[in-house]
Structures are given as C-alpha cells and as structure tokens.
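Both lines are given unchanged directly below:

***
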Amino acid sequence: MATKHEQIIRHIETLEVGSKISVRQVAKDLEVSEGTAYRAIKEAETQGMVSTIERVGTVRIEKKQKKNIERLTFAEVVNIVDGHVIGGREGLHKTLNKFVIGAMKLEAMMRYVEPGSLLIIGNRYQAHKLSLQNGAAVLITGGFDTSEDVKKLSDELQLPIISTSYDSFTVASLINRAIYDRLIKKEIVMVEDILTPANATFYLNMSHKVKDWHELVKDVGHGRFPVVDDQLRIHGVVTPKDVMGIDEAVMIEKVMTKHPITTMPRVSVASAAHMMVWEGIELLPVVDNHKKLLGIISRQDVLKAMQYIQKQPQNGDTFADQIISRFGEEKLDGGQILFRGEVTPQMTNHLGTISSGVLTTIICEAGSRALKQQRRGDMVPENITVYFLKPLQIESEIEVRPKVMEISRKFGKVEVEIFHQGILVSKAMMTTQVVER
C-alpha cells in the first residue's frame, strides 16, 4: 500500500497543468497532516511538477523533458526576475519559446512578437495590449504597472503580465543565464535517464527462497537482483556469491547483502559510475527518499551512457571549459604536453592573484588530459594535493606541465607543475579513477 507521501505525489500528478495547489487543501482532500502535505509538495517542486511563486502560490506546471528542458515556464520567469504577477495568473504554467526586448518603434516591435514569446518592455500600455493580442506574455521592467483593461485582457487570454524592478538589460541577462544553465544541464545524463524502471526490473521478495533465485536466473540469464518488501522498499541485494553452496530452502533474507549501496534518480551517471567502480559493484538499485525501488542500473548501462555523452555536442561551456579554453596546448618531445596561458581578471580573487579554485581546476583539467593521452576513458579525480609556492598575479603568463607518473586499467597518477617566467610557483599530485568508455 502506498504511503501518504506517495499518495500526495500521485494526486499532484493527476492535477491539470495550471492548477493552484495549497497545503491546506491537499491536507483536507487526502486527510493527512499539513506537515505531510507540505513535505510532499516540496518534493513535487524538486521533481519539477510544481512551481511556487511569491504572492501567487504554488502552481502545477508541465514537467520538463530532456528535449525541452532549456525552455522556461512563465512561473519560473517570475522567480528568476524577482517579479510579481499583475495579470493572467492562469497562464503561468505555459512555456515561452523566446523573449523580445521592446526597444524599438511599435510597428517594428510587433514583427518579432509571436505566440509563446515574452515581450520585455517598460510602461508602454499600447505595446502591452498588442503583445497580448499577438499571443505573447509581457514582462514590464522598472517596477511599472499597466492599465486595468490590459490586465483584464491578460486574464481573458490567460497570458501573464509580470512586473519587475530590474531594468531590461538585467532581466534579459538573468533569463539568458537561466536558459544557458539549462543547456548545460540538458547534456548531463542523469541516472533517471538510463535506469530500467521497477515495473521492468527483476527482483526478489523478502519471503522468497534460494530456490526462487535459481529459477529466476534460468529465466533472465544473470544472478544479481534487488530484494524488496511488499511496498517495494529495498532491503538488500542478492548475487551468485551470496547463494553459492546454500541450501535451496533457505530464505533469501538470510543470505542477501543487507543495507546495499543505492543511488537516487537525480544523480549524474558520472557520479554513479564512480561509485560502482570504487565499490566494485555491477548492479545499483535506484530508490526514492523513502527507499522505494524505482529501478536499477547496471555497469553496462553506465558504460553505454558514458559513450553516448562523449558523442554529444556541447551546447554550453561549463566554468572548467571556460577556464581551460584560455590555455593553448603544445606537444613536447617525448609525447608530453604543455599548457600555456594568461591569468585573466575573471580568474583572480579580491587580492588580484589567481584564486585557489581556478588553479585547482587548471591542474585537474591539465592532469586529466595528460592521462587521456595514455588511457582512453574518463578521469574522475579522487585526491589532489596542491602546494601554492608563490602567488600568481593578474595577467601573469604561466606554463602548466603535467607528467604522468603511473597509469593502470582503473587508476592514474599525475604530477602537475606550474611555472611563471621559468620559476616553479605551484605543484600538485593528483590521483584519478579511470572510467572506461
């Protein structure tokens, strides 16, 4: 039987997109405490099913899929720009396709305004009205309001009018940053993207016996299974090693590995791969906050996903990409590589010297690339010891020299030295796991 928490999540999933959700109403409808209702609604928000907006409340929104994760709902825009809704609340669940800054004459502006877009503009009431009539929402900058007839029109068309105290440039930057972050996030493959769901997973119950394990192995061809109770909560994992030489009448509960290592659906595949390599496990159960089995991933699933990631084009640069892109790569005699670049203002701290975080990133990236020359795979840093010998000032030209000390099928060790004008200014030793593609 589903827990009260699970019942609330299912109830929220059944609500129409755009519905208002209140803690008090959910508690009353499902006969649960307001505390239980509040926690379930917060989890639904984490899962992307609802969005909470100040002075509006919580609204059911469409859960993002990978293909359109870079699109924002108007409810999310309100939160991004610290705005408040002055009309068209019923349309907050809708998704915007693009935004337009209204810094031109009215006739020219309307050529760019189309259904599903967002017009960013000041207190130009006629533009507000025409935008709504063209199927676009309106974001009013400078903290201005609009006319009552425009508000009425937005309610009728269910197109939001949002007001924010920020200027147009700041608002556009905030929205652009949010979309850019989504593009990066879109390329990060999560456990939930590759798991075999519980309804397609083979598992054993606590009441099963070793005999049942043997029968299941004959049917599916492998011997690793989660062990669950009647509510699908995970209690253990059973493998061939656990049942070897055990009488078939013995209960699975007696031989299984208890308190197994598990993962959550919103964990990155890279993180799960690191865990599986480190712990030496072939099967990883995926659970929710209440230890209920959502599915499983195998080492083979993870390897396929890592291969897929390598083949995908990157839509957005991470901070690590932006930092290392400032450095040119050169090949030296003997096959070693060298990175040469300059300490830019963005890399420094308030003292005008390179920040420890940036320096560590440079070391990680240079070391990983040196290891990749000798071993195909992804390098997951495990331990880094950094010695900051001399401060590096802004606009300093530096050389980064990684030297591979040792590499095996699963582990690598690299020494990284950083020079300025021929003087050693920093040194590091890094060990990594090698996740084969």
Observations:
- The chain has a mean pLDDT of 86.
- The chain is about 35% helix and 25% strand.
- The radius of gyration is 28 Å.
- The longest helix spans residues 168-186.
